[in-house]
Amino acid sequence: MLSGIFGEDLFDEFWGFPTHELANIDKRLYGKNARHLMQTDVHENENDYEIEMDLPGFKKDQINVKLEDGYMTVSASKGHEDKKEKHGKVIRQERYSGSMQRSFYVGEQVKTEDVKARFEDGVLKLSIPKKELKALPANNTIAIEG
User: Fold this and answer.
1) I need a labelling partner for 21 at 20 to 30 A (CA). Which of 71, 100, 109, 139 fits?
2) What are the structural domains, with CATH classification, of the chain?
3) 0.70 cut: is pTM over it?
């Protein structure tokens, strides 16, 4: 098989040939496509920031967005449905199951009610308004005692 040249032989696990047991431990946790999880684009507009995050295979109720101490955390969690009896023995499983999260600093001035979120076609879209930072006092000199 040509894919065997690239270390992705369909029957590696089926025939009992363990490949790279300890290499890339994250692949054992998240599958061989771990680097593709929660891919995110951030765009800056005049009035806000738009975040688009890929979450393929997730449903809206499996995603949670939380804002705390200036950090926005997106987490998602799902499990595989038990289909062994219906489809026979699994010899290869690449689709992700489990939980993951990613955090972004958005500033402490951003409030929960300011953020708009929408999920469609496996893409989470967030709109975060730009907030003016509080200006520092004009006199920023520190008095020295003694």
Assistant:
1) 100
2) 1-35 (no CATH), 37-129 (2.60.40.790)
3) no
Measured CA distances, 75 to 54, 78, 82 (Å)? 12, 11, 23
**Residue 51, beta-bridge partner list:** 42, 126
Residues 6+ apart with CB under 8 A from 97: 78, 79, 80
Pair 58, 122: CB distance under 8 Å: yes
Question: 97 pLDDT band (50/70/90 cuts)?
Answer: confident
Mean pLDDT (the chain) is 76
Q: What backbone phi and psi angles, to 5 degrees, belong to 107? A: 105, 145
Measure CA of the first residue to CA of the last residue in the chain; give whole Å.
80
Q: Can you read off the two tokens belonging to residue 58?
A: 């997730």
CA distance 126 to 115: 7
Question: Tokens at residue 38, please?
Answer: 């929660």
Q: Is 5 helix (H, G, I), strand (E, B) or coil?
A: helix
